[in-house]
Amino acid sequence: MAREKDNSIQLGAMKYTVPKPELVDCISKKKLHCSPLSSAFVSESRRKGILPTLLREVLGARIMVKASIKHARASKTDPGCAPVGPEIGGQRHIRLYQRKLQREDAMCRGELGDVADAILGKGRETLERAITLVNEGNYGGARVIYGDTDSMFVLVAGATKAEAFAIGRRIADDVTKDNPTPVVLKLEKVYMGCVLETKKRYAGWMYESEDDEEGVLDAKGIETIRRDTCPVVAKVLERSLRLIFTRNWRGLSVYLNTKLSRLRDLPYTDFVFSKEYRGEYAENAAVPQRKVAL
Questions:
Q1: φ, ψ for residue 68 (rounded to 5)?
Q2: What's the top EC group for this one (predicted)?
Q3: Fewest CB within a 10 Å sphere: which of 29, 52, 88, 150?
Q4: For the whole model, what pTM was predicted?
């Protein structure tokens, strides 16, 4: 928090002075916590914060919705039920609101820049500590191959599905114990086959429990789920990924040869895409909107 020459603190629209006796009392009773970027916060027992309260309620709602979706997927008693997707029941709106609270405060730098920096800094510190714990721990040779914000991907080479779940639960429990309440690391899923393209762009053959007999394709940020890509790319990529993750190499070869040989027979609407042209690209960048503009 920005400190003025008169020892007052500027936080957003507020400007106040912390009484020295209160500050000394917080330090002596270890009720003061400093973020990696030197912003200081009192403990919850001293004063409960507004943002943590909001986040607990929003996160609780999101967990409840995800649990309901998982239960609906598992219970196939009613054949007339519609398929349950990952973004129904308001989950997408809850997720976006949660991210707005916990991470994208950084966009409001003019008002609460110190709070935004503290959130991002603490999140990074927590993630790095978890990565170190896994890489230096005894988890059957497991190592972190990707980490971003509040999640990490752990490679357990050669493990079966059951072994991967067992190791994942151990890691989740140990990371949770290494952090203060209410920080919790949850094992969400196991990928038996995964493609990490770039940051926030990946796909995998997902199992949510050991009891899942058949995996499902799970994709984040790639063309199969993006609205700005052309339909033919989304369809071909999704079908190809399914064949790759199920190791149907012969089927993949036949499918691609057939699809590519019939591209000219497809309607032009299958080739329409919508992307922003930003004007500045590397000379060898393979960006569709750049090629069209040139």
A1: -65, -40
A2: transferase
A3: 29
A4: 0.75
